[in-house]
Amino acid sequence: MQVALDKRNWNWLDTFLFFMRTLWIYYNASYVIENTANYQNKWLIFLWFMAIYLVPLLFYRPKYMKLISFYIAETLITASMFFYMMIQFQMAGVYDFLYLPLIMIGYVCQVRPYLWIGMITSVMVFLTGTALGDQFTEHFISAFINTALFYMIGFSLGRITVINNKNKALILSIQEKNKALEQYSRRIEELTIMEERNRVSQDLHDTVGHIFTSVITSLDALPFVMRANQQVAEEHIKEIADLARNGLNDVRKTIHQISPTESHLPLSQTFQEVVTEFMKHTGTTVDFKIEGNEREIGERIKFAYTRCLQEGLTNAIKHGRATQINVRLSFKEESLLMEIKDNGIGFESISLGFGLQGMKDRMTALNGMVNINSKPNEGTELRCSIPLAKEVMLND
């Protein structure tokens, strides 16, 4: 197990402890060398202290931290010097030599099992040195308390560093997640704008296409009506004007994102109104039938089916040149099916224009399907279905 401090950068506490350790080495090396009589021993002590200073730095320095290895090196080398000094001087002042190593050991031993190993090792070093120096005297308790206090200081500094390290990692993680959320939010906003733009475009296409097809068909028939009966022609012109006004209102509602089917009428009644208006202004025969027991459905489903009906009727006379259209609305147990079949010219292949693609997108958004079958000279059949089991989720 790696100590939690391994995964961090060198910080100001490390710099402070490095500086204190340098002063500690200088002070103790000067004292021991000065009080060593033998010249050769002075060099041995000097090299010993150099090892105490440099060997731990192999494992604990800026940009490289192996704190378990540092703990082992620090414990072995400084403990051996502590034992030597206790044997050599046999005085209570030698305990001062342990203060800085105990701070370092407490600093790096922050997680189990090293938390307990570091503490037990420090106690064992203290007791062994005390025995070698014959220091089990009346000052033993105070010396133990002092050394334990320095170990706790090191441990507290280590906890501060660990907590700061975790806080920095947490802040970095939060910042990364915030960036991801911002990117996700921007993407959702772009998709929402694109979806709304497509929805409004489709609504305008369906509304304008349906109304203008009816107006154009009525205007084409107007000269014949005028020659036959002037009064009927005037009434016909008035109906065309009303149809254009209604179409304008419908477009305005779409622009303001207000569904033109928000009257909460039953779907069958809405279909009947659309079919009646269509027959009135185009002269096309439409046979409308309802199968099954009608039940309440969501406004979004009503709106989607109404638009699909308008698009289907418009395409039947605009592209298929139909004179007879059959519309069937079937309320099944688990689905709602709309079928539009005409006697138009039919097509070898169907290409999805803007209107048909919009119809397909509406159905797909409600987990529905659109099928179009057509053959030359045999008319076209359009089928739209939505599973009503999803109604609770899709209802506005």
TrEMBL record:
Q: Which residues form the signal peptide?
A: none
Any stretches that span the bilayer, and where are they? Answer: 12-31, 43-60, 67-86, 114-133, 139-158
Tell me where in this chain the Histidine kinase domain is found: 207-390
EC number(s) per UniProt? 2.7.13.3
Catalytic reaction equation(s): ATP + protein L-histidine = ADP + protein N-phospho-L-histidine
Gene Ontology MF terms in the entry = ATP binding; phosphorelay sensor kinase activity; protein dimerization activity
Top-level taxon: Bacteria
Alphabetically sorted, this entry's keywords are: ATP-binding, Coiled coil, Kinase, Membrane, Nucleotide-binding, Phosphoprotein, Transferase, Transmembrane, Transmembrane helix, Two-component regulatory system
Q: What class of enzyme is it?
A: transferase
Coiled-coil features, chain-numbered ranges = 167-194
Query: What's a Pfam family this protein contains?
Result: HATPase_c
Q: Which PANTHER family match?
A: NITRATE/NITRITE SENSOR PROTEIN NARX-RELATED (PTHR24421), NITRATE_NITRITE SENSOR PROTEIN NARQ (PTHR24421:SF10)
Q: State what protein this is by name.
A: histidine kinase
